[in-house]
């Protein structure tokens, strides 16, 4: 049997090699028996597998933006959910029983101090006043008679022309008449007051509410005497609450030197309205309830705002931003520089050879687009800001931009998509008691 060398069927270079290879394969198939064919195919496969694949290009160093960690006194604001309240919320009530004749104001409009709001039926009270005045006149007449009688008795008693008893009776009658006159005067004044109460006026300048009683209704001072409300709009109060846990937490931070309040707790309060706009006037905290609410575990803090144009109305929900506190020598880094690991947050620290090393950090409160770092970083260290998610441990980095210390929040947002964790939800924070207190989120 004719044999064909196995090496004669190996691939040849070029197009001519392809044709020759095909011819040799056909010749080999005809010439070789089954066993030899298997050996030839195995040899070809073995030689083909020994061919080296092309070398992969070296991975390029990730391009990153870095910043230098710096310590600085950082002003912090605290935000609370708050609600407006009229500084004087007055109930307009009927002070006497009677029929309501007419409502004298436009519901929902501003009323002036002394403006008539309701008019009750005067006639029964005018009649009562006349009766009281008549009784006063009677008592005054009796007093005159008693005085005249006493004037006659005294000289006669001095001459022993009348008994001592007659003198005592005359003196007693005069005093009784005088007392009756005083009582009658009181009845007249009470009748005059009741008549005056039939004209119901606003005690202050403010915004009126709707009428609780309609014209013709019979009202009583005790059962259904509430007629409406008047709300003073200037100044306006804004109330918010601070929890006990927040109070204790911030006291600890103050004791540790990580938080500082302004002198005298003189905080400045700014309001953010429901549409996101800011109220033009600044407010100041003027009251903090020293007692905690036993049901909610919070205590009330109140700020006062000038409201000359009546923009604020009672019952509005707003955000109260309390400013004036600072965090001394704090470290603030952009949020996108902080990544979330399996058990903790970490950042990439860049050494002198531009290599990255993972560093576990303890994050604090949120501040704008930045995070306060409570532990894990020192001033002067460099960290990766943009491109952090593409960095691996001990990898060589290509630094394309260096941000100035403390400018992370204002820097380019190009690396925002590399953020490992979203910003934390705003956390309520608190500030201490009576001399202006406050608290909120950062």
TrEMBL record:
Q: Which residues form the Multidrug resistance protein MdtA-like alpha-helical hairpin domain?
A: 129-198
The residues covered by the Multidrug resistance protein MdtA-like beta-barrel domain are 235-322
Q: Which InterPro entries match?
A: MdtA-like_b-barrel, MdtA-like_BSH, MdtA-like_C, MdtA-like_HH, RND_pump_MFP
A single Gene Ontology MF term assigned here is:
transmembrane transporter activity
The terms describing its cellular component in GO are:
cell envelope; plasma membrane
Read off the SUPFAM superfamilies from this record: HlyD-like secretion proteins
Q: Where is this region: Disordered?
A: 409-442
Domain Multidrug resistance protein MdtA-like barrel-sandwich hybrid span(s) in chain numbering: 88-222
Ranges for domain Multidrug resistance protein MdtA-like C-terminal permuted SH3 come to 331-388
Alphabetical list of Pfam families matching this protein: Beta-barrel_RND (PF25944), BSH_RND (PF25917), HH_MFP_RND (PF25876), RND-MFP_C (PF25967)
User: Where is this gene product found?
Assistant: Cell envelope
Coiled coil regions, renumbered to chain: none
Family note: Belongs to the membrane fusion protein (MFP) (TC 8.A.1) family.
Protein name as it appears in the record: Multidrug resistance protein MdtA
Q: Which species is this UniProt entry from?
A: Paraburkholderia saeva
- In the UniProt record, the gene name given for this protein reads mdtA_3
């Amino acid at each position: 049997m004719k044999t064909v060398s196995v090496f004669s069927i190996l691939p040849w270079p070029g197009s001519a090699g392809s044709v020759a290879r095909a011819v040799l394969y056909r010749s080999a198939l005809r010439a070789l028996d089954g066993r030899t064919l298997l050996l030839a195919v195995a040899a070809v496969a073995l030689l083909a597998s020994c061919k080296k694949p092309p070398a992969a290009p070296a991975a390029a160093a990730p391009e990153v933006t870095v910043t230098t960690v710096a310590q600085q006194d950082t002003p912090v604001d605290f935000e609370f959910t708050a609600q407006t309240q009229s500084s004087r919320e007055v109930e307009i009530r009927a002070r006497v029983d009677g029929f309501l004749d007419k409502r004298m104001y436009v519901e929902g409009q501003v009323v002036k101090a002394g403006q008539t709001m309701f008019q009750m039926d005067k006639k029964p009270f005018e009649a009562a006043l006349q009766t009281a005045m008549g009784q006063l006149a009677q008592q005054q007449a009796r007093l005159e008679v008693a005085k005249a009688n006493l004037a006659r008795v005294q000289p006669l008693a001095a001459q022993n022309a009348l008994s001592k008893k007659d003198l005592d009776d005359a003196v007693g009658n005069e005093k009784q008449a005088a007392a009756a006159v005083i009582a009658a005067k009181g009845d007249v004044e009470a009748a005059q007051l009741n008549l005056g109460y039939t004209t119901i006026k606003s005690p202050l300048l403010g915004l009126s509410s709707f009428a609780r009683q309609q014209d013709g209704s019979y009202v009583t001072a005790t059962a259904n005497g509430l007629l409406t409300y008047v709300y003073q709009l200037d100044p306006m109060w804004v109330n918010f609450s601070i929890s006990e846990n927040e109070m204790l937490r911030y006291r600890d931070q103050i004791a540790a030197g990580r938080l500082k309040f302004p002198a005298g707790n003189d905080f400045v309060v700014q309001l953010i309205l429901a549409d996101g706009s800011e109220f033009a006037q600044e407010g100041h905290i003027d009251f903090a309830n020293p007692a905690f609410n036993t049901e909610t575990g919070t205590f009330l803090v109140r700020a006062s705002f000038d409201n000359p144009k009546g923009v604020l109305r009672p019952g509005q929900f707003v955000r109260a931003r309390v400013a004036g506190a600072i965090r001394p020598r704090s470290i603030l880094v952009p949020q996108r520089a902080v990544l979330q690991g399996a058990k903790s947050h970490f950042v990439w620290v860049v050494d002198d050879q531009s290599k990255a090393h993972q560093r576990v950090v303890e994050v604090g409160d949120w501040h704008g687009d930045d995070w306060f770092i409570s532990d894990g970083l020192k001033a002067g260290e460099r960290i990766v800001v943009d491109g952090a998610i593409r960095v691996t441990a001990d990898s060589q980095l290509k630094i394309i931009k260096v941000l100035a210390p403390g400018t992370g929040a204002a820097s380019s947002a190009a690396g925002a998509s590399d953020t490992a964790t979203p910003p934390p939800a705003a956390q309520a924070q608190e500030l201490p008691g009576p001399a202006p207190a406050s608290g909120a989120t950062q």
